[in-house]
Amino acid sequence: MIKHVLLTIVLAFSLCTITNLNAQKGQTPKTKTIKIKKGQVLDFLNAIRKPGTDDAMNEYFGKVFPPAQKYGFKLDVTFVTIAPPIQGNYHAQFFGVSSWTNEEGRNKFENHKMDFDYKQARREIWSVFNLSFYKNLKEDIEFTVSDDKLYVITTYWIDDMVAFKKAKNKATHNMVAAGGKEMMSIIGKGESPLGYYYEPNVILITEWETHEAFDSYLKKNNISSKENGVRNVQQLKTQALLQ
User: What value does the mean pLDDT take over residues 165-174?
Assistant: First the structure.
């Protein structure tokens, strides 16, 4: 089980860009149901890896993952970028949604003694390693991903949450009418460990059948503006990496 999960992690951090969705005509798409329970801790990660770091990355996951799992860590789903940014100038290669059984387990891992400086290893392997976590989730999170679907990941930094929620509610109604699905929506700042500051006010993951369906929707429903309370936005098209 550990080897299988490690392979998924390594693949997720290894791949930079996939140009098309995996499932081809006549093939059965791979799916996975994500379940994160109320009261657990959710980690949201995105990263850019330096070239020539394969061996260092393999060592990193071999050292870090076993104790993390011991303290309740679970890699729930990984998304790999498949196109240049739609909005914003940040081109993350990878997004990860992970969870911990509880805050205590996460803290124990942070204080776990090991003969490996994993924080220094991160600096050597990734030029960008953005991490935000959400403690004591107020409700269950459950959704199913498929490797033949398009997943748009949008992060917002908000100045006026009232104006933003009003615009988002209208856009969500139009999204459903256009064939999109809201898979995960987290409103409220998470926390970033020291040295990993990345705290958007909103994380939104939506699912689409095709690029064209999303592009058509966005032309009429782009809520990223100061009038809607948005200070900054990052938006990327991704594919779920399922092994």
Answer: 95
